[in-house]
Amino acid sequence: MKVTCLTFNPFQENTYLLHDDTRECVVVDPGCYERQEQEELKKYIADNSLKVVRLLNTHCHIDHVLGNKFVADTYNVGLEIHQEDEQVLRSVPTYAANYGFPLYAEQLPASYLKEGESIKFGNTELEVLFTPGHAPGHVVFYNQADKTVIGGDVLFRQSIGRTDLPGGDFDTLIQSIKTKLFTLPDEVTVYPGHGPETTIGYEKKYNPFLR
User: Running DSSP on this structure, what letter comes out for residue 97?
Assistant: First the structure.
């Protein structure tokens, strides 16, 4: 599986395109808001002859959902989230303008992701892991074959997701990291929602929140 990261919006949010030799592609957390950001996403998909088959959110804070409607409409795919984060998604229109996104267009989920579910596309398989704490319905996507995690805002390089937003809880987040992520092999690469990638082993050793 090839992991392509495009960084969008003032929050510097990492949008991920996952694809393999079949050219089937999954878009995770599209943060593209401005027209040029949408065009950058579209150009990468076109230039690489990718076929978008799934649209997934790790969680539904505004910076991760700004491009949901654009991707859903452009590629005719339904949005998939964890049901526990639907209220988070539905609240975005109430504050989007205050954050500088007056043109935010809402896209509601077409289906719900469940813990342990397998997401299959092309020759690739991802496992859904339920990792609340930063958001009540946060999930991550684990590719066991390639030892990669698309991790949203749970675990960052030497940091963790904030827990002061509605539905956040510090103890729950730490529990999610220790029981869902730190049980994975040390060599697993984590692609977070912000900043550079890291590995499970590195964070076990150097993350000041988890020693």
Answer: G
Token couple for 122: 């092309």
Task: From the options 3.60.110.10, 3.30.70.580, 3.60.15.10, 2.60.15.10, give the CATH code of 2-206.
Answer: 3.60.15.10
Grouping H, G, I as helix, E, B as strand and the rest as coil, residue 14 is strand
Q: Are 132 and 60 in contact, with CB atoms under 8 Å apart?
A: no
CA distance 133 to 19: 28
**Phi, psi for 89 (deg, rounded to 5):** -65, -45
Q: Note the pLDDT tens digit of each residue in 29-73.
A: 999 999 999 999 999 999 999 999 999 999 999 999 999 999 999
Tokens at residue 118, please?
Answer: 């397998």
- pLDDT tens by residue, 136-156: 999 999 999 999 999 999 999
Statement: the pTM of the whole predicted model exceeds 0.90: yes
Residue pLDDT, tens place only, 157-186: 999 999 999 999 999 999 999 999 999 999
| CB 131, CB 138: distance < 8 Å | yes
Name residues whose C-beta falls within 8 Å of residue 23's C-beta, 6 or more positions apart in sequence.
Answer: 48, 49, 50, 51, 122
Could you state, in order of their start, the residue ranges of all structural domains in the chain?
2-206
